[in-house]
Amino acid sequence: MGSFEALGLNPWIVKQCQMVGIENATPIQKECIPQVLAGKDCIGCAKTGSGKTLAFALPLLQVLSEDPYGIFALVLTPTRELAYQIADQFQIMGKPIGLRQCVIVGGMDMMRQGMELSKRPHVVISTPGRLYDHLGSCATFTLKKIKFLVIDEADRILSGDFDEQLKRIFEALPEQRQNLLFSATMTDTLDKVRKVAKKEMFLHETK
Ligand code: ADP
Ligand code: MG
Per the database record, which ranges form the Helicase ATP-binding domain (predicted)? Predict the structure, then answer.
């Protein structure tokens, strides 16, 4: 049995991984995927390039495939480039289930993004600033039913620079949700992270 299957992922995801030459899970993926599938919050800490994106994207896609419902997940990441990188991986892996995703970042037309958001994407991948703008400008746009909040590069997102936007964004989220935080470094931001999650946290260090 391949290592992804052993983590509890369905055959269609394992096949999709194989298609792009990914056979064995990285340590952070081994730690996090079963936790996410079990419905738990998760803090994943592993160095850059260790496969953190698929550590959240794969289990999230599996849960989505079993219960598609409105905007399902919000992924926050600090930069436009990272948002597109994450979107690429979601797109490839989510193809078999017809994943609809939407990238909401600065420098693009607000109206066009508003249109994309109105098409009921499953996953919204966004930088905090632009998401904040949409929450303020569009009355019908809601994140109240998301099941997953993913904070990628959590140390940067929670460094303080985005606090004003985050306050508004967190107000727009439901209390009940699964929180998945990923970071290359996780030091003094940890307290803040715990506050964000408000729930039981699991710390996976694979450095
Ligand atoms: P980071 O931990 O910095 O977020 P990424 O998730 O962007 O790293 O992954 C870095 C690269 O590794 C990507 O190109 C991704 O496709 C690849 N990758 C992810 N998981 C695996 C795996 N299990 N085996 C081989 N390559 C992988
Ligand atoms: Mg990353």
Answer: 33-204
Q: Assess contact for 122 and 99: CB atoms under 8 A.
A: yes
Residue 133 lies in a domain: yes
Place of tokens 């999650």: 197
In the chain, the number of structural domains is 1
Angstrom distance (rounded) from CA 101 to CA 23: 25
Residue 159: give its domain's CATH number.
3.40.50.300
Which-ligand-closest: CA of 50?
1
Residues with CB under 5 A from ligand 2 (ion): 52
By most ligand atoms within 8 Å of CB, the mutation choice from 23, 26, 151, 181 for ligand 1 is 26
pLDDT in tens, 63-113: 999 976 767 999 999 999 999 999 999 999 999 999 999 999 999 899 999
| Sign for the pseudo-dihedral over CA of 194, 28, 154, 66 | negative
CB 76 within 8 A of CB 128: yes
